[in-house]
Amino acid sequence: MHITVKKGNLLDTKTQAIILAFYEDEKTFSKLVSSADQKTGGLLGDIIKSGDFKAKPSQVSVIYTRGLLLANRIALVGLGRKSELNLEKIRNAFAKVMQHLRDLNIKDAATSFDWNPMPDQKEKVIAAVAEGAILGLYQYTPYKTVGRDEIHEMRLLEIVADTKDYSVLQDEIKKTKIITDAVYFARNLISAPANEMTPSIMATHAEKIAKRKNVSCRLLDKGKLKALGMNALLGVASGSNQPPKFIILEYTGGQRGVAPIALVGKGLTFDSGGISIKPAEKMDEMKTDMSGGAAVMAVIMAAADLKLPINIVGLVPATENMSGGSALKPGDILKSYSGKTIEVLNTDAEGRLILADALSYASKYKPAAIIDIATLTGACIVALGEDVIGMLGTDEQMKKEINQAAQITGELVWELPLWESYSELIKSDIADYKNSSGRSGGAITAAAFLSKFVGNYPWVHLDIAGPAWAKKDKTYIPKGASGVTVRLLVEYLQQRIKE
């Protein structure tokens, strides 16, 4: 869907539907709504007085103008109580109203910002409207052939502004469209079936990103990985016929020589569990085990398109975890890229193995900070549920800044402890470390394992096992891939630049 900004008056806009936002507890109409009510002979007042529309959060009603306005319809959307309004409620409301209009097979709509109660957060409110409208309309349909003509899509949302707000709106909508495009990119990669999103295909997408200005891509194949000693990654890959790829994306938006932010994303394009095989039920969802890697690639893409003045390196170890005749076995010992040895007790704890090599490789860049993103543990879902990102790390300031960014984007994080006592649980009797310490504290011990491969750099680990895949429709996250952490990390980077 296109989203554009134009100067003018919303009530003079020729469109299939105009969207008007209302507060649940507001006694008087805004100037725009009063004018719309007058021009439609009191239709808006009638629907509210009748109680049919109470402006509850994300409530939607549609009325027909019968030629009284240039727009064919008015879509009323509720924002809830004015005193309780926040960015997430705005995203939810505009996702719901756009989905409702799409279901009516409406192709274009228009809205304006006369209702904004947060003038000090004007840019954030504009972004929230656009994010909700665009992200809520996401559909993954490339493999739908039967009934394809029944798939409805919105074509256009116009934001109508007066002259004084026009430039602010235009700039913010442009930036938000870049970020939501990156989220769509990540969702598309994650949604693709594993036979259509192998490590090699994922690497091809990385090469396409590198066609942007100031972005470069290097791909390390099996031979180069062996020469480097990335045996943890190669061990996970050993059971698959699909060759592994180590994807290196570098974005140089800042001054050359300035230490980059290193983003490391887990890129398991399919995870069967290996010899420690997973149950058949829901194994199909294991195509999503590359959500962290997809997010890293999407953030590089967004940073380049936004021309952020910062240096970033994105590292994505990409492989399958299969149970072929040459597969890694429980009890095997691997010598990692760092030189540290790992006893493999569970081949389904493979994500931390490939991340161990990638995190150690990140130290080559002498980064200002390292952030890894991974669908790492089911234990994190048990601890925090399916909507929250688990956050652990060694740098208090980074964790604080990421949490502040999360409050803005709605991709919420919750910190788990990473005390030294947890490291005792990952010590091996016959190697340096073991890749599994059992069920207790599984999300924390996994992070403790990763911490041994980071070096002395500021580091934060984001476990996205819960929110990476929505098992049911949420407001602006339709059932399926969420693209979680793309908006979060872009916001974090933007705030870091400002500071």
Describe the structure.
With 499 residues, this protein is α/β, with parallel strands linked by helices. It has 2 domains: 2-161, 3-Layer(aba) Sandwich (Leucine Aminopeptidase, subunit E, domain 1); 185-498, Aminopeptidase, CATH 3.40.630. It has 14 helices and 20 strands. It has helices spanning 31-39, 43-49, 87-103, 122-135, 163-191, 199-209, 222-228, 231-237, 291-306, 351-362, 378-384, 396-409, 442-451, 486-498; strands at 2-7, 17-22, 60-64, 73-78, 108-111, 156-161, 215-220, 245-252, 261-265, 267-271, 311-321, 333-335, 341-343, 369-374, 389-393, 413-415, 433-434, 459-463, 469-470, 480-481. The strands form 4 sheets. Strands 7, 8, 9, 10, 11, 14, 15, 16 and 18 form a 9-stranded mixed sheet that branches. α9 links the parallel β10 (267-271) and β11 (311-321). α3 runs parallel beside α4 (122-135). It is elongated. The chain starts with a strand and ends with a helix. The mean pLDDT is 97.
Features:
499 residues; 9-stranded mixed β-sheet; 2 domains; 6-stranded mixed β-sheet; 20% strand; single chain; Leucine Aminopeptidase, subunit E, domain 1; Aminopeptidase
Short description:
The chain is α/β, with parallel strands linked by helices.
